[in-house]
Amino acid sequence: MLSLLMRRPHLKDLPPVPDGVDPAGPLDATALAHLLDAAFSTTWTPDRVRLELLDDPTVRATYLIRRGDRLVATASARVLPHRDPQAGWLHWVASHPALRGRGLGLAVTVAALHRFAADGLTSSALETDDHRLPAISAYLRLGFVPQYPTQTHQDRWSEIFRRLSLRRHAR
Fold this sequence. Notes:
By secondary structure, the protein is α+β, with helices and mostly antiparallel strands. 37% of the residues lie in helices and 26% in strands. The protein is built from five helices and seven strands; from the N terminus they run ββααβββαβαβα. It has a seven-stranded mixed β-sheet, with helices on both faces.
């Protein structure tokens, strides 16, 4: 199934980057692999982190939040000029599963958005999956809007909004 697409049509009025968000460096590859491996159902290794994030020329920066000597959240700021030369692409946003729901993913996302604005980009886009309801909710709060390239996507978004509404009413 194709990923869902969301777009933030402008980079104005961004919230400030919270304290404690730092750019990743070459020595973070192993810790990043552990975090991404815990957060996603794919296998991450330090070599994969270097290949897809730290050394990838399309990734402008990868941001981290640390708690002690452990990485607890990350997001990367990526450019894909062949898809949209004026948009920055939010890439591999993750927080440690034990710490989800604390705004960590939101904090690293804001750092990536600021990077896009500093680089002169005018919008941001991302791809996500239907089951990532807390992340989708955070993206909506940040001003991302769903894109509907096909009727199937429109149907999927209708179901997501129904599920988000049920979650709100269950609290």
